Structures are given as C-alpha cells and as structure tokens.
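Worked Example 4.2. Consider the chain below.
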Amino acid sequence: MRPAALLLDLDGTLVDSEPVHRAAYDAFLAQRGWTVPDLGIFTGRRAEDVFAVEPGPWSEHDPHDLAAEVREQIPDDATPEPVPGAAELVRAASLAGVPVAVVTSARPEWVALAVGEGLGVLEHVAVVVTAHDVTEGKPDPAGFLLACERLGVPASDCLAAEDSPAGIRAAAAAGVGRVVGVTTTWPATDLTDAGAHEVLPDLLDLVDLLR
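Applying the procedure from the previous section yields the following structure tokens:
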C-alpha cells in the first residue's frame, strides 16, 4: 500500500556519505591521539550524543566541542554519491502527492549540501528535521515523531528508510508502520535485529510504490 508519507534518513540512506564521515572521525581521532575499536557507535547518531553517553577517551571533554572538531574535518566541497534510487524516490513521491520528510542526525548546512546541491531534490522535501530540532537524537524517536507532527500524519501510516540500527530503532519506537533498512552501511542482520520490517540494498524498489 502507498504510505501516507516517506520519512527518510540522509547519511547512508539518501547519500553514500558514511565514507566521508568515517574519514572525518579517523582524522579527528588521529589528531587527538585516541583509539576507538568500533566507529560504528557514531553511525546514525549525533556526535555530541555519542561523546556524552558512550565510554571513551573523551569522557572528560565537552561533547559539543568535540562534535565541532569532527565537523571541521569534513571538506567544504564534500559531495557524497547518491544512493541508487534516492533522487528518483523523492521525485516520484512528489508527483504522487506523498509528502517527504528528511529526518537526520546532521545539521541544516549538510542537508542543504547533500540534498540540495548533491541530489537536487530539496524543493520536493516537505519537512526537514535535523540535529537542531530535537533534544534527543536517534535512537530516540523524537525526530520521527516531530516529522509526523509537522506533516500531520500518523506514524503508523508512514514508511521510514534508515541505514543504521540507531535509526531503525528510532523509527520503530516512533511507531512507524513500515520500517525499511538499507544495507549501505550495516549488514542486513543488524538492521532486522534492530527492528526493520524489511531490508533492501538501495532505494530503487521503493520507487515502484509510488507509481
């Protein structure tokens, strides 16, 4: 069935930007002389949230200052590649009258670059929820609940697409009716274990829902 709205994550779901962010964390950690066994703890989450709650060499530092240092490692001209089907999905939703919300742990500037300049579909997005809009980031459901509130649709009638366990858990906790995992970053088993109803390699199959 056609969903009432699409709730789409950005990094790793609409654009293949995880390599860009991973390189930024690698540079940040090297600069600090810190070692982290698994950078996956940052995937899909706001950096400041991770620094605040996860144990690590950063425990005595201000999480917001550290997050700013990570962002400084991202080149100004970074243009991540689109995930196959991303732009087509947003345009198809617009033509079908299905509103689209981007629900991301990133900041507004990154949304403008990745969705606006990169995908060229920002004008087709009805609602954008960023790290600035919520007190608690993913896996907290606040971002998805806010998107549904702004769109005026019940979460149970929506479809969410996410590439990380944190994002999947957030969508599931918000009561989203159909949660799709995209295996651009994490294995399918991790996404289904987090609560994804189905798992796809990209967004191409979802385009058919809107035609």
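Residues 18-32 form the longest helix (15 residues). The chain has nine helices and eight strands. Compare this with Example 4.1 before moving on.
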